[in-house]
Structures are given as structure tokens and as C-alpha cells.
Amino acid sequence: MQSGKVLDAERVLREMICQRIVPDNVVYTTLIHGFYKVGNYEAAYMLFDEMRSQEISPDFITFTTLVCGLCQSRNISEVDKLFQEMFNRGLEPDEVTYTALIDGYCKAGEIKVAFSLHNEMV
């Protein structure tokens, strides 16, 4: 996805809000994913914060998208908090979530944590 396309999509989101059309978690998750794909991690996380402030509940896919993006950006400290929030909401990670986490921890040099997550997954 090109950066310009993500910005266009965000403009559509803003227009929806201006017209009092309430975006759902699918709209936010799609934008979060788009911003992560173009490397704009800050914008992605700001959308997540906006989503929560609007009391739109993130689902399993939203959290997996965030975990993948944070691991790509090597923001492991934030991943821990997010992963805990996912569990606190009663959402279970799947193999995609675990694979992203394991990869992120390995790249951060946290091999013991990665191994522990692998054991938890299987």
C-alpha cells in the first residue's frame, strides 16, 4: 500500500466522522494496518488510541495487527503492554500473533522470552 493511499483512506475516515457516520473497528483496523505497512508506526498507534477514546472495541484482528506492527518497529516494551491488554479483554492470540511475537523477541535478543512464547503456543 502506498503512503498516499493510506492518507486518502484517513481523509475518508475524517469525512465519515464529520458526517456523523460512526466508523467501526474494521475501518480503524484497516487504517492501522495501512499505516504500519508504510512504516508510519506513530500514526497507526494514534489511530488505536483514537479508536479506544471513541469507545470502539478493538477485536482480535486489531490486536494482532498492532502486535505485528510493533514487532516490526522493534517496540518490544509496548508489545508487552498490548499483549497483556489483549488477554485482559478475553481475546486469545492465534499462531499469527504468536509468530509475530516470537519473531519480534528474537530480533530484540530476547530468546528466552521467545522460547517461552513458543512453548505457550504449542
Give your account of this protein's structure:
By secondary structure, the protein is an all-alpha fold. It folds into two domains: 1-57, no CATH class; 59-122, no CATH class. It has seven helices and no strands. It has helices spanning 3-18, 25-37, 41-53, 60-72, 76-88, 95-107, 111-121. The longest helix has 16 residues, at 3-18. The N and C termini lie far apart (33 Å). The model has no long low-confidence stretch (mean pLDDT 88).
Element string (H = helix, E = strand): HHHHHHH
Q: What's the alpha carbon Rg, rounded to whole Å?
A: 15 Å
How many individual helices? Answer: 7
Instruction: Sum up the overall morphology in one term.
Output: globular
Number of strands: 0
**Helix content range of the residues, please?**
over 70%
Strand content: under 5%
Instruction: Look at the structure and give the mean pLDDT.
Output: 88
Low-confidence residue ranges: none
- Please, how many domains? 2
Question: Which structural class should the secondary elements be placed in?
Answer: mainly alpha
Q: How many angstroms does the end-to-end distance come to?
A: 33 Å
Main sheet: strands, sense, barrel: none
Keywords: Repeat
Family: Belongs to the PPR family. P subfamily.
Pfam families: PPR_1, PPR_2
PPR repeats: 24-58, 59-93, 94-122
